[in-house]
Amino acid sequence: MATKLNLDKLDLQIIQEMLQNADTPYAELGKKLFVSGGTIHVRIKKLEEFGIVKGKKLNVNLKQLGYDITAFVGIFLEKSSLYDSVAKELEKIPEIVRLNYTTGNYSMYIEIVCKDINQLRYVLHDELQKIKGIERTETLISLEESFNRSVLVAKDVS
Protein backbone atom coordinates (compact mmCIF):
# COMPACT_ATOMS: atom_id res chain seq x y z
CA MET A 1 0.00 0.00 0.00
CA ALA A 2 1.37 3.38 -0.97
CA THR A 3 -0.78 5.32 1.50
CA LYS A 4 0.79 5.93 4.89
CA LEU A 5 -1.46 5.57 7.89
CA ASN A 6 -1.22 8.37 10.42
CA LEU A 7 -1.99 6.94 13.83
CA ASP A 8 -3.49 9.26 16.38
CA LYS A 9 -3.75 8.98 20.15
CA LEU A 10 -7.06 7.07 19.94
CA ASP A 11 -5.58 4.46 17.56
CA LEU A 12 -2.69 3.87 19.95
CA GLN A 13 -5.02 3.69 22.96
CA ILE A 14 -7.17 1.10 21.15
CA ILE A 15 -4.10 -0.96 20.31
CA GLN A 16 -2.87 -0.79 23.90
CA GLU A 17 -6.24 -1.80 25.35
CA MET A 18 -6.62 -4.67 22.88
CA LEU A 19 -3.09 -5.89 23.69
CA GLN A 20 -4.19 -6.18 27.32
CA ASN A 21 -7.44 -8.00 26.47
CA ALA A 22 -8.45 -8.66 22.86
CA ASP A 23 -11.84 -9.96 24.07
CA THR A 24 -12.97 -6.54 25.29
CA PRO A 25 -16.28 -5.73 23.57
CA TYR A 26 -16.09 -2.68 21.32
CA ALA A 27 -18.91 -0.95 23.23
CA GLU A 28 -17.06 -1.40 26.54
CA LEU A 29 -13.81 -0.19 25.01
CA GLY A 30 -15.62 2.79 23.52
CA LYS A 31 -16.98 3.77 26.93
CA LYS A 32 -13.51 3.52 28.44
CA LEU A 33 -12.02 5.72 25.71
CA PHE A 34 -15.03 8.08 25.49
CA VAL A 35 -16.06 7.19 21.92
CA SER A 36 -18.77 4.99 20.42
CA GLY A 37 -18.41 1.24 19.90
CA GLY A 38 -18.88 1.94 16.19
CA THR A 39 -15.84 4.21 16.20
CA ILE A 40 -13.79 1.45 17.81
CA HIS A 41 -15.00 -1.01 15.16
CA VAL A 42 -14.09 1.35 12.30
CA ARG A 43 -10.67 2.10 13.80
CA ILE A 44 -9.82 -1.59 14.32
CA LYS A 45 -10.95 -2.39 10.77
CA LYS A 46 -8.63 0.38 9.49
CA LEU A 47 -5.74 -0.96 11.59
CA GLU A 48 -6.33 -4.44 10.15
CA GLU A 49 -6.43 -3.15 6.56
CA PHE A 50 -3.05 -1.45 7.05
CA GLY A 51 -1.55 -4.61 8.59
CA ILE A 52 -0.97 -3.04 12.00
CA VAL A 53 -3.45 -5.39 13.67
CA LYS A 54 -2.99 -8.95 12.44
CA GLY A 55 -5.80 -10.88 14.05
CA LYS A 56 -6.32 -11.73 17.68
CA LYS A 57 -4.56 -14.45 19.67
CA LEU A 58 -5.68 -16.63 22.49
CA ASN A 59 -3.23 -16.55 25.39
CA VAL A 60 -2.87 -20.18 26.48
CA ASN A 61 -1.00 -21.55 29.50
CA LEU A 62 1.01 -24.19 27.62
CA LYS A 63 2.26 -25.82 30.85
CA GLN A 64 -1.37 -26.64 31.74
CA LEU A 65 -1.64 -28.44 28.38
CA GLY A 66 1.47 -30.51 29.08
CA TYR A 67 4.08 -28.48 27.20
CA ASP A 68 6.83 -28.48 29.82
CA ILE A 69 9.86 -27.51 27.72
CA THR A 70 10.63 -24.14 26.15
CA ALA A 71 14.00 -23.87 24.47
CA PHE A 72 15.78 -21.14 22.57
CA VAL A 73 18.15 -22.19 19.82
CA GLY A 74 20.81 -20.07 18.18
CA ILE A 75 21.46 -21.26 14.65
CA PHE A 76 24.75 -20.76 12.83
CA LEU A 77 24.31 -20.85 9.04
CA GLU A 78 26.99 -22.00 6.61
CA LYS A 79 26.30 -18.77 4.65
CA SER A 80 23.90 -15.95 5.47
CA SER A 81 22.52 -16.19 1.93
CA LEU A 82 20.89 -19.48 2.99
CA TYR A 83 18.54 -17.69 5.42
CA ASP A 84 15.42 -17.82 3.21
CA SER A 85 15.72 -21.51 2.35
CA VAL A 86 16.48 -22.49 5.96
CA ALA A 87 13.61 -20.33 7.25
CA LYS A 88 11.23 -22.09 4.86
CA GLU A 89 12.32 -25.48 6.24
CA LEU A 90 12.11 -24.32 9.87
CA GLU A 91 8.55 -23.14 9.29
CA LYS A 92 7.55 -26.76 8.57
CA ILE A 93 8.48 -27.83 12.13
CA PRO A 94 5.37 -27.27 14.29
CA GLU A 95 7.28 -27.12 17.59
CA ILE A 96 9.06 -23.95 16.43
CA VAL A 97 6.84 -21.08 17.51
CA ARG A 98 9.09 -18.11 16.72
CA LEU A 99 11.93 -17.37 14.31
CA ASN A 100 14.10 -14.26 14.23
CA TYR A 101 16.85 -13.26 11.81
CA THR A 102 19.50 -11.82 14.10
CA THR A 103 22.77 -9.97 14.34
CA GLY A 104 25.52 -11.11 16.69
CA ASN A 105 26.72 -14.65 17.21
CA TYR A 106 23.76 -16.40 15.59
CA SER A 107 22.30 -16.02 12.14
CA MET A 108 18.88 -17.11 13.38
CA TYR A 109 17.24 -17.54 16.74
CA ILE A 110 14.24 -19.80 17.30
CA GLU A 111 11.91 -20.63 20.16
CA ILE A 112 10.76 -24.23 20.49
CA VAL A 113 7.91 -25.53 22.67
CA CYS A 114 7.77 -29.27 23.44
CA LYS A 115 5.88 -31.62 25.75
CA ASP A 116 9.04 -33.23 27.11
CA ILE A 117 12.78 -33.59 26.69
CA ASN A 118 12.35 -36.52 24.27
CA GLN A 119 10.34 -34.36 21.89
CA LEU A 120 12.97 -31.61 22.16
CA ARG A 121 15.71 -34.12 21.39
CA TYR A 122 13.75 -35.26 18.32
CA VAL A 123 13.37 -31.68 17.05
CA LEU A 124 17.04 -30.84 17.66
CA HIS A 125 18.57 -34.08 16.43
CA ASP A 126 16.17 -35.41 13.80
CA GLU A 127 14.59 -32.23 12.43
CA LEU A 128 17.08 -29.35 12.69
CA GLN A 129 20.21 -31.31 11.86
CA LYS A 130 18.82 -32.53 8.53
CA ILE A 131 18.23 -29.00 7.20
CA LYS A 132 20.83 -28.08 4.61
CA GLY A 133 22.62 -24.84 5.41
CA ILE A 134 22.62 -25.18 9.20
CA GLU A 135 26.23 -25.42 10.32
CA ARG A 136 25.53 -25.89 14.03
CA THR A 137 23.17 -24.89 16.82
CA GLU A 138 23.35 -23.80 20.44
CA THR A 139 20.40 -24.62 22.70
CA LEU A 140 19.27 -22.90 25.90
CA ILE A 141 16.43 -24.42 27.93
CA SER A 142 14.16 -22.01 29.76
CA LEU A 143 13.70 -22.85 33.43
CA GLU A 144 10.92 -20.30 33.93
CA GLU A 145 9.21 -17.46 32.09
CA SER A 146 9.02 -14.68 34.64
CA PHE A 147 6.89 -12.38 32.47
CA ASN A 148 5.76 -11.88 28.90
CA ARG A 149 4.31 -8.54 27.88
CA SER A 150 3.61 -6.28 24.96
CA VAL A 151 5.18 -2.90 24.41
CA LEU A 152 3.27 0.09 25.81
CA VAL A 153 2.30 1.84 22.58
CA ALA A 154 -0.16 4.43 23.92
CA LYS A 155 2.49 5.96 26.20
CA ASP A 156 4.44 7.24 23.18
CA VAL A 157 1.78 9.77 22.17
CA SER A 158 1.49 13.09 23.98
Automatic annotation (TrEMBL):
Ranges where the HTH asnC-type domain occurs: 7-68
Pfam families, alphabetically? AsnC_trans_reg, HTH_AsnC-type
Cite the SUPFAM superfamilies for this sequence. Dimeric alpha+beta barrel, Winged helix' DNA-binding domain
Stored PROSITE patterns: HTH_ASNC_2
Biological process, per Gene Ontology = response to amino acid
Chain coiled-coil ranges: none
**Xref: SMART domains:** HTH_ASNC
Give a GO molecular function annotation for the protein.
sequence-specific DNA binding
Lineage: superkingdom: Bacteria
- GO cellular component terms given for this protein: cytosol
Swiss-Prot/TrEMBL keywords: DNA-binding, Transcription, Transcription regulation
Keyword Cytoplasm attached: no
- Is DNA-binding found in the keyword set? yes
TM ranges are none
Q: What is the name attached to this protein's record?
A: AsnC family transcriptional regulator
